[in-house]
Amino acid sequence: MALSLRAVKRNFGDFILGPIDLEVGRGERVAVVGPSGSGKSTLLRIVAGLVKPDEGRVYIDGRDVTTLEPWRRGVGLVFQSPALFPSLTVLENVAEPLISRGASRQVAVRRAREVLEVLGLGHLAGRYPAQLSRGQQQRVSLARALVLEPPVLLLDEPLTALDTPLRGEVLPYIYEASRGRTVLYVTHDFEEATFVASRVVVLMDGRVAAQGDAVELFENPPTPKVAQFLGYTNRLRADCGFFYFRPWDAAPGTTYVGRVVAVWYKAGRYEVLAEVEGQHVRIVTPKPPRSGSFSFDVVKGKCFPQME
User: Fold this and answer.
1) Which H or E element spans position 42?
2) C-alpha dist (Å) from residue 141 to 17, 91, 96, 161
């Protein structure tokens, strides 16, 4: 395994992470998702060596790195913020990690130019960070992490600080750059996770709540709590207990009738907030309701015998 966490635990007093067991194969891209405060970034920082676990071991390429300093682990790390040297050019920023590890300037510059070209930044090599957009800065940060050819690439919510258009600009570069690499990608956005990774680990309250193939997990969540995090925000009573479904899992029909609370237009469709059986539900529909009531069927969802 390229990365292995065995019974890793960290106690912060008011919050306990773990114990966590996680295996990431060589060349596998795994996303760790979960709500804020679930321990995602802490887990990644333990892998990077920035936080020491109280218990358990961390292995990279079969080597126990639990007590090693971050710079001796050989991992590439991309944070939420670019953290670039403002006085260095783009090329110098990317070459610096190699130079600081003893590479000649000629070798470092050549390798830095190669990585910048891959990330579509070759024409910006002579600029300074302040002369770049935020999306370009984050791509430079990714280049800095890749220039060392790390055995494991760690990305800690790299798109969180970007607005929607910039996320769309950077995400394809992350996907291409991580192809064939061992990647641990932390995010709170499940759609972002499914774009980057083939396997997803859901972390809640410091523990692994679910993991598996991204599509299978999205379509078949194992618990109500995981379902709600993955977008199954609507809940209605049913013969089976409680039926959870997503806004787009409904279609015009006659099974349920709700009172329209609000309607708004969003990206070529309408979203309806309706009150049904004392519960608020959100429904995506191609046309707005014509009256104060809204009738629909639920064509897909997940039933659980009780709430969590």
Assistant:
1) helix 40-48
2) 28, 11, 12, 13
106/112 Cα distance (integer angstroms): 10
Task: Say which amino acid occupies 283.
Answer: I
* Position with higher pLDDT, 211 vs 74: 211
Q: How far is Cα 92 from Cα 119, in angstroms, rounded to an integer?
A: 16
Inter-residue contact 78 to 145 (CB < 8 Å) = yes
> What does the alpha-carbon distance between residue 207 and residue 222 come to, in Å, rounded to a whole number?
15
Is residue 217 domain-shared with residue 247, that is, in the same domain? no
The answer to whether the CB of 34 falls within 8 A of the CB of 229 is: yes
Task: Tell me the pLDDT band of 239, cut-offs 50, 70 and 90.
Answer: confident
Q: Looking at the 3D structure of the chain, how many domains does it have?
A: 2
Cα 137 to Cα 158: distance, rounded to the nearest angstrom: 11
Mean pLDDT for the chain? 91
pLDDT, one tens digit per residue, over 266-282 is 888 999 999 998 999 99
- Regarding whether 274 and 188 lie in a shared domain, the answer is no
> 3-class DSSP state for residue 255?
strand
Would you state the structure tokens that stand for residue 17, as one six-digit string?
A: 């992470």
Range of 181's domain?
3-224
Contacts of 105 (CB under 8 A, 6+ apart): 95, 99
Residue 134 and residue 162 in contact, taking contact as beta carbons nearer than 8 Å = yes
Do 173 and 119 meet the contact criterion of CB atoms below 8 Å apart?
yes
